[in-house]
Amino acid sequence: MDEQNQNEAERIQFEAAVISLARSEGFDAHEVQALYDSVLAEMKREAVIMDFLPIFAARRVREMLLSKEVESRSGR
């Protein structure tokens, strides 16, 4: 796969992860996108293998969103 096609496939995969997170957790897609972009950028700086970054980033964002929701419900 050439680099342009790989970048397009990566972009589609990332967008799908963000949409899935926003829908499954009931958060605003723009908020999820911003958080996902930030987490992914941080992970890319440290990663050696990029294949599973969307999965790991989505997991981290989901944990962050759920933690944020729990904090807001508990009045913190």
Written description of the protein model:
It is a single chain. The chain has 76 residues and is an all-alpha fold. It has one domain. Helices cover 82% and strands 0% of the residues. The protein contains 3 helices and no strands. It has helices at residues 3-25, 29-46, 53-73. Helix 1 crosses helix 2 and helix 1 runs parallel beside helix 3. The longest helix is centred in the N-terminal third of the chain and has 23 residues, at 3-25. It is globular, with a radius of gyration of 14 Å. The model has no long low-confidence stretch (mean pLDDT 80).
Number of strands: 0
Number of helices: 3
Largest sheet report: none
What is the 3D shape? globular
Which structural class is indicated by helix and strand composition?
Answer: mainly alpha
Tally of individual domains: 1
What portion of the residues fall into strands of 2 or more residues?
A: under 5%
Instruction: Indicate the percent of residues in helices.
Output: over 70%
Sequence stretches where pLDDT stays below 50 over 5 or more residues: none
Rg calc: 14 Å
Distance, first to last CA: 48 Å
**Order of helix and strand elements from N to C terminus:** HHH
Average pLDDT, rounded to a whole number, is 80
